[in-house]
Task: structure prediction
Amino acid sequence: MSKRVNAEILKTDRRIISRKLLTGELAEKDLVNHLKKLPDVSENAEEITCQLHEK
Result:
């Protein structure tokens, strides 16, 4: 994983979004519109299995 920070990710971090909603810096309707514009990348998901070992 790269150690470079993506500025777009920082702008959309959940904590930052919550703070902006609380302070009125971001309107909920603007957030909803932004989320609707995001592409559906569900086809890129991979199913993984995890086996837990009992002691």
About this structure: The chain is about 45% helix and 0% strand. The chain has a mean pLDDT of 81. The two ends are 32 Å apart (CA to CA).
